[in-house]
Write a structure and sequence with these properties.
Elements: H1 3-11, H2 16-37, H3 40-57, H4 66-87, H5 93-102, H6 108-114, H7 117-130, H8 133-143, H9 149-156, H10 160-180
Helix pairs in contact: 1-2, 2-3, 2-4, 3-4, 8-9, 8-10, 9-10
């Protein structure tokens, strides 16, 4: 079923739309939530919450990219759950990914004070385009999709060490890239 058809079903308030979303995107959504949370039960709960949020958001909203819309909602819900779990000391390897990236920035708040989000997004897009294709894939999979180095290595057909080195170099390059553009870390 097409995304347009799913959106139309949501606009008509058809309960079947949730089944269609799950049939088309359920496996990917569970994988994304699982990568962030590391717990099947929590991941399933977040996926269901995301479906409920989509149900309540459409209408009035009509997204141009349905999966992007669903993904953003799912990621935010999963991160909220992750933070709650982390507060209870239930860490996953996602903590490692965040810790690695935090080392690039002196303090997250100082970056947000220096530049607005739109400019930062444009700079990050420029940075990602400056990376080689494999390094860009590794960076996005690690720091956006929260995949482990082992998973990334398997998908790229390289060693875990190769991925770890690529990520280290990418973080170093990111620091230099941001400093060149006057973004203090």
């Amino acid at each position: 079923m097409t995304d347009e058809a799913i959106i139309e079903m949501l606009l008509e308030r058809s309960e079947e739309s949730i089944s269609e979303i799950d049939a088309k995107y359920g496996k990917r959504c569970r994988k994304i939530a699982m990568d962030i949370l590391g717990n099947e039960h929590d991941a399933e709960e977040c996926v269901n919450d995301a479906y409920f949020t989509v149900w309540n958001a459409i209408p009035p909203e009509v997204p141009t990219s349905f999966f992007g819309f669903l993904y953003k909602i799912l990621r935010n819900i999963s991160l909220k759950k992750y933070r709650a779990n982390r507060a209870m000391k239930r860490n996953t390897y996602y903590s490692e990914a965040l810790d690695e990236l935090e080392q690039t920035f002196a303090a997250e708040e100082s970056v947000e004070k220096e530049i607005d989000k739109q400019y930062f997004g444009e700079v990050m897009e420029e940075f990602l385009l400056s990376l080689s294709a494999e390094s860009r894939v590794a960076f996005v999979r690690r720091y956006w999709f929260s995949q482990s180095c082992r998973e990334i290595a398997k998908q790229l057909g390289v060693s875990e060490n190769n991925v770890a080195v690529r990520l280290l170099r990418a973080r170093e390059k990111l620091r230099e890239f941001l400093e060149e553009r006057g973004i203090e870390l």
